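Question thread 4412

I'm putting together a teaching handout and wanted feedback from people who do this every day. The idea is simple: show students a protein as raw sequence, then show them the structure tokens that encode its fold, then repeat with a second protein so they can compare. Below is the first pair exactly as I plan to print it.
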Amino acid sequence: MGDFQGRHALIFAAAPETEYGYIRAFLDEHPDALIACADGGLRHARALGLHPDFMIADCDSSPEIEGTEIIRLKPEKDDTDTQGCLREVIRRGCTAVTLVCATGGRIDHELANLSLLEEAYALGVQMEIIDRQNRIVLHAGGCMKFKMPTGYKYFSLVPLDAVLHGVTIENAKYPLHDATVTRAGMITISNEAAANETVAVEIRDGRAIVVFSRDLAPAL
């Protein structure tokens, strides 16, 4: 099965994707990442010339399989293939997970993939979801400090709970102090970091996702 203790895992989901530059950049930074494919995610790995360390498939997205190890599932099951990949890379000892090709397709699949951020946190693993325009991480409460990732202009705080209490944002264009933020009235979208500052986002009670985003250049 291989020794992947402490390794970073890259999981390919099956959402539509044709632009792979951001995945190549990830691979340049993590050349020894474990490569896992969730069913139809195999086509994205192949497009990058990658051979998966393992693949989880119920073959409902594609009949094709490839990988050093194939884990077959029945289509009639409770968990998604991507959820199965997450649990498997954690079982193999990976401590950080990046999920790609997970947005932009069916909205139910996208929401299910976003929910995996909470599952990964519960299992003690750091996880992010990236696409060519966004980086998405979980804010599990308490104080999170960060520098804006290179090339990203905005950050947004999207509540997972109906109400976030005690939200404080410092060193940002739109600061907050001990505010209440609700899903019905979000006031934490499209914020920006103050120049060369470390942003601090505190949530006293509640969980949210943090989305780092950038605008794409218009097509010529």
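The second pair follows. I'd like the answer to focus on this one:
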Amino acid sequence: MIKLIIGKKGSGKTKKLADMVNATAQVSLGNVVCIEKGDTLTFSISHKARLVDADAYGISGYDEYFGMLAGIKAGNHDITHIFGDATLRIGSRDYYELAAFLERLNKIEDVEFVFTVSCDEAELPEKIFVVAEKC
């Protein structure tokens, strides 16, 4: 399952994501991972969740981002949730590439993905909402 937190810059997406990560980490029977760009969430995310800086691994573009997420899940089958902040800054602002990325991620089973997407919902192609829902 893939969920998207959609909104323009400054609309509170990152705060909502951090709250979701912390709430999920409290009740998850597995592991919770949060991917960010930079180290802005260091003090916002509970120590019960694993925080990963995509920049520390040189991740840029949706192919690399997919490889990172698939590798994280493959390396630990106990992961129940993966959250991602700054999705368009890690991948790209090409919404069709975003759609292809989400379609690939949708094939990974037994994990719920939640991503922030900094844009207006009307800008996104309809095919994104075939595999992802707005939260």
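Top answer:
Good format. For the second protein you could add a caption like this: The first strand starts at residue 2 and ends at 7. The longest helix spans residues 13-27.
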